[in-house]
Amino acid sequence: MVLLAVTACSDGLTVSDAYIRGLPPGQTVTAAFMTLNNGSNQECRLVGAASPIASSAEIHAHTHHNGTMSMRPVEGVALPAGEAVSFEPGGYHLMLFGLQNSLSDGEEYKVTLFFEGCPEVVVTMPVRSVLREEES
Q1: Is 94 a domain residue?
Q2: Domain range holding 111?
Q3: Residues ≥6 apart with Cβ < 8 Å to 96
Q4: What is the pLDDT of residue 15?
């Protein structure tokens, strides 16, 4: 399977390797992952997201404290000029709550990313089965 290297671009900001984690039917919460590359000469800050398939979306981060890993929402993620930030399992990610329907492997859905310092970006993200993700 070949994935597109770049799924969205806006004024020097590119989004690549984006996908939504597919889960078993009946789940109403999932996560989305991607790499954000800020090719502009100014810092951007991801401050939110939205998708028609979810009632809400939040930016989350995994943290380790005293040997315990936890997930918590964050208000935003800085994207320094000329740098990339990965949203991946065990790190930053988007949580999609209140899914409107079950997600099937290979389906694609739009997710809008909202920034301070950069224009919003609409990304088309394929669903990748959690089973396929574990094989990667």
Answers
A1: yes
A2: 8-135
A3: 20, 29, 30, 31, 32, 51, 53, 54, 56, 57, 111
A4: 94
User: What would the pLDDT profile of 78-126 be if each residue is shown by its tens digit?
Assistant: 999 999 999 999 999 999 999 988 899 999 999 999 999 888 999 999 9
Please report whether residue 53 resides in a domain: yes
Query: How many domains are there within the chain?
Result: 1
- CA-wise closest residue to 81 among 8, 7, 3, 13: 13
DSSP character string of 68-87 = EEEEEE-S-EEE-TT-EEEE
Domain-embedded: residue 1: no
Q: What local confidence, expressed as pLDDT, does residue 67 receive?
A: 78
On whether residue 41 sits in a domain, the answer given is yes
